[in-house]
Amino acid sequence: SGSTVEKIMDSSRTQKIKFAEIIQNVKVVVEYRCSPSHKGQTVEFIKTNPLFGNPVTMAVGDGANDVCMI
Fold this sequence. Notes:
Largest sheet: none
Structural class: mainly alpha
Distance between the termini: 18 Å
Number of strands: 0
């Protein structure tokens, strides 16, 4: 949920590394009940983190307010 994403993205570097280590072992990350900015933060985190190499990411939204996540 959005509050969980916010806590992770605002956490210490150590916590972000732990989060990255966990999600690098999955094929898909699905976020729900999140604001577009939270989804965008997650996409940016995955795209810029060296643990993920050169990942393909996709963000899906249902309206114009989702532009900031793309």
